[in-house]
Amino acid sequence: MDYSLTTNQQTLQKELKTFVQQEVNTQLCSEGWPVSFNRDLWKKCADAGLLSLGTKETRGLVRDSDFITMVIALETLGYTCSDNGLPFALATQVCTVQQSLLHHGSVEQKETFLAGSIEGILIGCHAMTEPEAGSDSSNISMLATPTNDGFSLTGEKIMIGLAPVADYCILFATVNPDAGRWGQTAFLIPTNTPGLTVNGPIKKLGLDSSPMGTITLSNCEIPANYLLGPQGAGAAIANHSLEFERTCILASQVGRMQRQLEIALDHAKSRKQFGRPVVEFQAVSHRLADMRVRIETARLLLYKTAWKIDQGQRAMLESSMLKLIISESFLTSSIDSMRIFGGYSYINEHETGKDVCDALGGVLYAGTSDIQRNIIAGLIELP
Ligand SMILES: Cc1cc2nc3c(=O)[nH]c(=O)nc-3n(C[C@H](O)[C@H](O)[C@H](O)COP(=O)(O)OP(=O)(O)OC[C@H]3O[C@@H](n4cnc5c(N)ncnc54)[C@H](O)[C@@H]3O)c2cc1C
């Protein structure tokens, strides 16, 4: 077993840090806080290769196309980027949207939408959640009625990441509500299709530079070649993409936890109370120790899960354990970090305070922690 990073991986970490510090953070924060989505910056990230992660293509700073490289890049982004929203948005695009296209798209869909996304010219979103179907995605009610040459879709999708800036959406509807999961079908629809309306960005608690919106379809007529995969395969496609999503979507938070630990440690060493640096109080040093343990645990499982996918193996159990571990660790470490910084972390948009808001989203999206525990309980295998 070899835990060391390859030369390419080490070079990527180094070059990516420089790229984010010099090219991304300045532009992201140029108009002050809260930051918002910036399409020029998105293109810059694409030119640096960040949207080719996990595809067969390599470009810019990205010289390998495996999943390990993807999670290392996202982890580095999380460490360096001044807002968690951009790494989250990039992860949504490369893990959820592009992996679905890569594995289930037709040749034409890949040539247009995948190629355009890798170039940073097109942006996609992944729309499953509805007002009455959150954790229970088998209950979606968006209806796709077959027509002479395609389908007519009606229904609403909510809380969709990147929807307000998306050029296309991968969207799940049912062709037969009585058939439950077997009626679910995936579609790839350009967002300028008549009958499709996007609303947003909606106000949310964190992840500022990743916009979220709703998508409403009202008798939206689409041709049959907008199907993504075969009719009735929607649930299988969504499940497959969730495995990739849960592996990568929180990778950036491992990097963020590393950064949190570094700044909390610096603060604990320099802040004096009762005549001593606060790091000398056991209550504070134990918090730092717990933060360190969480990073190690999360990183080991992150790399192992990515490695398993690179071996061509299924990783449903690992990706759920990983999603649970990283999201809960990031939330707990963000709160621990706030405690170490004391009242300063609660004012002036201190980055640790913002981390708490960002971390709260992590225990909800891509399946809540309760749902991950349900999956893990159903798949328990003894090593
Ligand atoms: C930042 C963010 C980004 C998102 N991006 C997207 C996106 O791009 N695309 C998309 O489709 N959706 C997206 N979502 C929506 C997200 O997937 C849902 O919020 C999530 O699936 C939970 O559904 P819900 O909010 O309806 O909660 P509910 O399903 O109503 O759950 C409410 C509570 O009940 C619990 N619960 C429900 N069922 C069970 C069960 N069987 N066992 C135990 N507990 C249970 C839940 O854990 C939760 O605590 C996003 C959400 C957030 C916060």
Protein described:
The protein has 383 residues and is α+β, with helices and mostly antiparallel strands. Helices cover 50% and strands 15% of the residues. A hairpin with a 2-residue loop joins strand 9 (272-273) and strand 10 (276-277). Helix 1 packs parallel to helix 3 (67-80). The radius of gyration is 21 Å and the shape is globular. Residues 125-129, 134-135, 159-161, 207, 212, 361, 364-365, 367-368, 370-371, 374 line the site of flavin-adenine dinucleotide (FAD).
Q: For the largest beta sheet, what order do the strands appear in spatially?
A: 1-4-5-8
* Ligand inventory: flavin-adenine dinucleotide
Question: What's the number of extended β-strand segments?
Answer: 10
**What gyration radius follows from the Cα positions, in whole Å?**
21 Å
Entry keywords:
four-stranded antiparallel beta sheet; alpha+beta; binds flavin-adenine dinucleotide; 383 residues; four-stranded mixed beta sheet
Could you give a quick summary of the protein structure above?
By secondary structure, the chain is of the alpha+beta class.
